[in-house]
Specification:
This protein is an alpha/beta fold. The protein folds into two domains: 133 residues, Rossmann fold; 63 residues, Winged helix-like DNA-binding domain superfamily/Winged helix DNA-binding domain (Arc Repressor Mutant, subunit A, Orthogonal Bundle). Helices cover 54% and strands 13% of the residues. The chain is built from eleven helices and five strands; from the N terminus they run E-H-E-H-E-H-E-H-E-H-H-H-H-H-H-H. The protein has a five-stranded parallel β-sheet with strand order 2-1-3-4-5, sandwiched between helices. Helix 3 links the parallel strand 3 and strand 4. Helix 7 packs across helix 9 and helix 7 packs across helix 10.
Length: 218
């Protein structure tokens, strides 16, 4: 049996996926969670083979939860659940350790196929995402600056981090929600292979996004 854990803050999504998967032979839903801390604890105690993880969670976004899951149980495969077609977020999730992703609008056949593929350690990616990942791998050795991977908005967020700004301050300065700021921070950490926002701030300073004397004055 493929043991599956479902993590999504929307009850109707969890229940719908639970119902669909329970109809499939060889798949057992061992638990549901509505937030990141619950998911991390459930992975430790329930030891699922596959986690269906919402990309956007309240309090602790999906990328941060993903990194913790892979740290705790590297063999547990994670499928990101998403209603977004944003390539930046999806590629960041793959680079952070997700095996693949699953649209919340997917049909039952696609859900089952994705879960079974994940249990075998196989990735199911749309051609546009697979093409981008291949292109990044090919271009990687030619990159001269680590910040080339960041989107313009992520560069703005990284610059603010280098200035010592809090998520609330960044939210106000850029006119975006705090949850969106958290998502950008998680994406930055994943793309630059960093552990926390302090390391990100240091990279921002090293790359000259903020003059060092300006940062020291804060």
């Amino acid at each position: 049996m493929i043991r599956v854990l479902i993590v999504d803050d929307h009850k109707v999504v969890r229940q719908g996926l639970h119902f669909l998967l329970e109809q499939e032979d060889g798949i057992e839903v061992v638990g549901e969670c509505a937030d990141g801390p619950g998911a991390i604890e459930a992975v430790r105690t329930l030891e699922p083979a596959v986690v269906l993880l919402d990309l956007f969670l309240p309090g602790q976004d999906g990328l941060a939860v993903l990194r913790q899951i892979k740290q705790d149980r590297p063999k547990t495969e994670v499928l990101m659940l998403t209603s977004s077609a944003d390539e930046e977020h999806l590629v960041a999730a793959i680079r952070a350790g997700a095996l693949s992703y699953l649209s919340k609008t997917a049909g039952v056949d696609q859900v089952a196929v994705s879960v079974r593929a994940a249990a075998r350690g196989e990735s199911v990616l749309e051609p546009r995402i697979a093409t981008r990942l291949v292109r990044e791998m090919r271009e990687g050795p030619r990159r001269r600056q680590p910040l080339d991977e960041l989107s313009p908005r992520e560069l703005e967020v990284l610059t603010a981090l280098a200035r010592g700004r809090s998520n609330r301050e960044i939210s106000r300065a850029l006119s975006i929600g705090e949850e969106t700021v958290k998502t950008h921070v998680s994406s930055i950490l994943a793309k630059l292979h960093l552990a926390d926002r302090t390391q990100a701030a240091i990279v921002g300073l090293q790359q000259g996004l903020v003059p060092l004397d300006e940062a020291l004055d804060k």
